[in-house]
């Protein structure tokens, strides 16, 4: 009688140093006995346990000598999530069936998502049970105007409920958000110190870029640390009255951070998900009074006053359902704000405004003062119609600059934004007046140059609508961290003659 086969030895954890962004990925050898016996295939979802932690990862199958048959290789994202020593024993199994995916399929086929269905999907998303493909299906199913008001409210509530919440006690807690689509619109880094300098609380948790060359967190990170946990945020706000932190570093609406991971490469930002994304993080951060900036322009995210009104109504109804006091202000979105587009370049603009430098971009200062004024009135620090004057005084006297420095020091120390080693100017091909500037094309050029991944990358705009330029004068300068990225961006710019539209004046 033949002996029973010996059990396969346990797999051992191996860190492969592969960057898969935020997606946990598992790597197994084609001849791995566990892989074969369990019937795991490439793109299978696998539940893995090591060192007492369990995650769900997407499987990639490898051949050759890259990985041993008794090794379970993991990407950097999976390594961070497991937090187990290399060489730890790894247990693998098929995850339980993903029941909530049925709700996603129903939505794809046109059925409305109920509140329990939304809750089930978001719980699974936050727990990391959805693969990138499944996340993409959910994002696409909700894209455009496919979420009605009830679905949007349900999505917002679910996003809040699956994460942490910060409690600030009594009193008003202020916040602001821009819906985006306007390069260089880095007003938050000016508004927060102005508001905090007036004795109000403004714990700002900001996002990184989704479809833009820079988010507030990206720009702020070039000046000070932004990856603060909840206790750190509370300490900074108690000390200074404000903060500018990355929301992804804390579990405030964690499902939103997962969805953003997929929205970025898809270049999708649906209205219902935008509303849920913005408001869920405001509620989770403990905000009571929120100002929403909606830039309107032909190449902004919101292209007409009518579309802005529809968005404002959806924001207001959802905010009311969640107990938020919300105000929406429409602003000019016809052209970029400031001179820089990209994390460090936008940070340089912010510092120039806060320091009251003569060369500071006046449009960035004006917009920041407008928004800060609204918030000061919302917070009760200024009477109706008197907020902007108070904000101007705080900026002009240097109080905002001193408060910004205090915030940076409290967050871990202030530093200077980096400067790109490779730069090239794009010149006007003819003399004439600047008639229009395409926000989307400029943003695209900045991203091709490496922003926001390379903090120093992007572009510096040298003209404004209405300016007269001579042939050969620079319209903008592309900044890059490598010659390859610089060339890539310039190649695109060369075929986009309408990015900065110059008239044919003699």
TrEMBL record:
Residue stretches making up the Pyrimidine nucleoside phosphorylase C-terminal domain: 433-500
The enzyme's E.C. designation: 2.4.2.4
GO-annotated molecular function: 1,4-alpha-oligoglucan phosphorylase activity; thymidine phosphorylase activity
Record Pfam families: Glycos_trans_3N, Glycos_transf_3, PYNP_C
GO cellular component terms attached to this protein's record: cytosol
Reaction(s) the record says it catalyses: thymidine + phosphate = 2-deoxy-alpha-D-ribose 1-phosphate + thymine
Keyword Transferase: yes
Alphabetized InterPro entries for the sequence: Glycosyl_Trfase_fam3, Glycosyl_Trfase_fam3_N_dom, Glycosyl_Trfase_fam3_N_dom_sf, Nuc_phospho_transferase, PYNP-like_C_sf, PYNP_C, Pyrmidine_PPase_CS, Thym_Pase_Put
Protein's GO biological process: pyrimidine nucleobase metabolic process; pyrimidine nucleoside metabolic process
PROSITE patterns in the record: THYMID_PHOSPHORYLASE (PS00647)
Keywords, comma-separated and alphabetical: Glycosyltransferase, Transferase
Family, as annotated: Belongs to the thymidine/pyrimidine-nucleoside phosphorylase family. Type 2 subfamily.
PANTHER family: THYMIDINE PHOSPHORYLASE
HAMAP family linked to this entry: Thymid_phosp_2 (MF_00703)
NCBIfam families, alphabetized: ARCH_P_rylase, PRK04350.1
Protein name, per record: Putative thymidine phosphorylase
């Amino acid at each position: 009688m033949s002996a029973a086969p010996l059990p396969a030895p346990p797999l051992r954890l191996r860190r492969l140093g592969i960057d898969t962004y935020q997606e946990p990925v598992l790597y197994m050898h084609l001849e791995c006995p566990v892989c074969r016996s369990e019937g795991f295939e490439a793109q299978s979802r696998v539940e893995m346990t090591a060192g007492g932690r369990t995650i769900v990862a997407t499987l990639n199958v490898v051949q050759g000598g890259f990985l041993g048959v008794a090794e379970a290789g993991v990407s950097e994202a999976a390594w961070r999530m497991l937090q187990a020593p290399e060489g730890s024993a790894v247990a693998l199994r098929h995850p339980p069936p993903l029941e909530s995916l049925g709700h996603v399929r129903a939505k794809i086929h046109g059925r409305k998502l109920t509140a329990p269905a939304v809750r089930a999907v978001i719980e699974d998303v936050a727990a990391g049970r959805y693969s990138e493909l499944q996340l993409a299906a959910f994002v696409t199913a909700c894209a455009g105007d496919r979420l009605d008001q009830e679905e949007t409210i349900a999505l917002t509530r679910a996003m809040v409920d699956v994460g942490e919440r910060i409690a600030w006690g009594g009193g008003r807690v202020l916040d602001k958000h821009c819906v985006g689509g306007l390069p260089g619109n880095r007003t938050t880094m000016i508004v927060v110190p102005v508001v905090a300098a007036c004795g109000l609380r403004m714990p700002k948790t900001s996002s990184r870029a989704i479809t833009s060359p820079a988010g507030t967190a990206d720009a702020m990170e070039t000046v000070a640390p932004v990856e603060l946990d909840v206790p750190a945020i509370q300490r900074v706000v108690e000390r200074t009255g404000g903060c500018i932190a990355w929301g992804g570093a804390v579990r405030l609406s964690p499902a939103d951070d997962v969805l953003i991971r997929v929205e970025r490469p898809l270049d999708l930002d649906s209205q219902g998900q935008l509303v849920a994304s913005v408001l869920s993080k405001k509620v989770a951060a403990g905000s009571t009074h929120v100002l929403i900036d909606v830039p309107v322009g032909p190449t902004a995210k919101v292209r007409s006053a009518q579309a802005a009104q529809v968005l404002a109504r959806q924001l207001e109804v959802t905010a009311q359902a969640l107990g938020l006091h919300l105000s929406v202000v429409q602003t000019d979105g016809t052209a970029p704000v400031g001179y820089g587009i990209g994390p460090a370049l936008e940070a340089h603009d912010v510092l120039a405004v806060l320091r009251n430098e003569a060369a500071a971009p006046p449009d960035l200062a004006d917009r920041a003062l407008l928004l800060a004024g609204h918030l000061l009135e919302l917070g009760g620090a200024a009477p109706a119609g008197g907020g902007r004057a108070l904000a101007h005084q705080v900026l002009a006297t240097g109080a905002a600059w001193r408060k910004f420095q205090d915030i940076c020091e409290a967050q871990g120390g202030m530093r200077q934004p980096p400067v790109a080693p490779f730069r090239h100017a794009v010149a006007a091909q003819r003399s004439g007046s600047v008639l229009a500037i395409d926000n989307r094309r400029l943003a695209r050029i900045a991203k091709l140059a490496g922003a926001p991944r390379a903090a120093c990358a992007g572009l510096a705009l040298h003209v404004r609508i209405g300016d007269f330029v001579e042939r050969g004068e620079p319209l903008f300068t592309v900044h890059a961290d490598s010659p390859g990225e610089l060339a890539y961006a310039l190649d695109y710019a060369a075929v986009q003659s309408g990015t900065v539209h110059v008239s044919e004046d003699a």
